[in-house]
Amino acid sequence: MASVELPARGRLERHLDGIVTENRFTIAVVFPAIGAVALLASAEALFPEPLRFNPYLLLFGIAVMRLPLVAGVAPLLTRKAAAGVVILCAYTYAIEFVGVFTGYPYGSFEYGIDLGPMIGGHVPAALPLFFLPLVVNAYLLCLLLLGGRARRALVRVPIVVLAVVGMDLALDPAAVSLGFWAYDGGGSYYGVPWMNYAGWILSATVAVTVLDASFDRKAVFARLDRCRFMLDDLVSFVILWGVVNAYFGNWVPVALAAAFGYGLWMTDRFDIPAR
Which is nearest to 74 in space by CA: 20, 152, 23, 24? Predict the structure, then answer.
């Protein structure tokens, strides 16, 4: 029987799946491990100036670690889902501009490290690359953990929101310790004010609601069943921020990162083969 040629989008998605599948260990384990060492070496001024917190190396590493999530979600991008992603990107920029200029809802803060091109000189252009994966990873993990209970929006949405906030409770202390940004007056939680997390509850609620309304949940479950690497970006999160927090003695964030690792193990996704 003659094979049927896939349309261009299908060929691209299959090619991307193949790249990620063949390089799972490198992408999800080696890259975050090297990234953690590079960030710590930069923080301790062990790298020469051109390499110290180099924004383009930083963005390249993040982009590589995001590949499993991008490849996993790509087949789910209907017009409705793509519109939802555009809305989320716009929201990400808008809430960050409000935060930078008003101090709300996250508290007053300033960026301390060059994160690449800036919009208006105030907000990193790559901001959605940092924010949206937190929301999507939390959403996918919670769908798997909840199983049939995920059918109820009153269960699904609040739990995903809490998971997103939990991810920031692990991430923000590490970022502050590295000097990525700093809050005016510091904060009682590893230099982060509690107001920041009240802001994250608001941001996560909006983002999760938009995400949940934009994607076909049955299609998401089906893709999760077929795609073993779809949560590998969360593996990178656990390794990268777990190591950085451990170096600085931020033990509560370390425990939170480990909790997400346990969640991955519970969903039978912590199975990256070494190559």
Answer: 20
Q: Which residues are paired to 192 by β-bridges? A: 189
Residue type, 79: R
Q: What number of CA atoms fall less than 13 Å from residue 234's CA on the CB side? A: 32
Q: Which residues contact 15 (CB under 8 A, 6 or more apart)?
A: none
Q: What share of the chain is helix, strand, coil (3-state, %, to 5)?
A: 70, 5, 25
Alpha-carbon distance values, 76 to 23, 58, 141, 212, 220 (Å): 22, 28, 16, 13, 7
Backbone Cα Rg of the chain: 19
Residue bearing tokens 């590998």: 232
Judged by DSSP in three states, 182 sits in strand
Taking only the tens place, the pLDDT of each residue in 117-174 is 999 989 999 999 999 999 999 999 999 999 999 999 999 999 999 999 999 999 999 9
CA distance 229 to 84: 23
- The pTM assigned to this predicted structure is 0.94
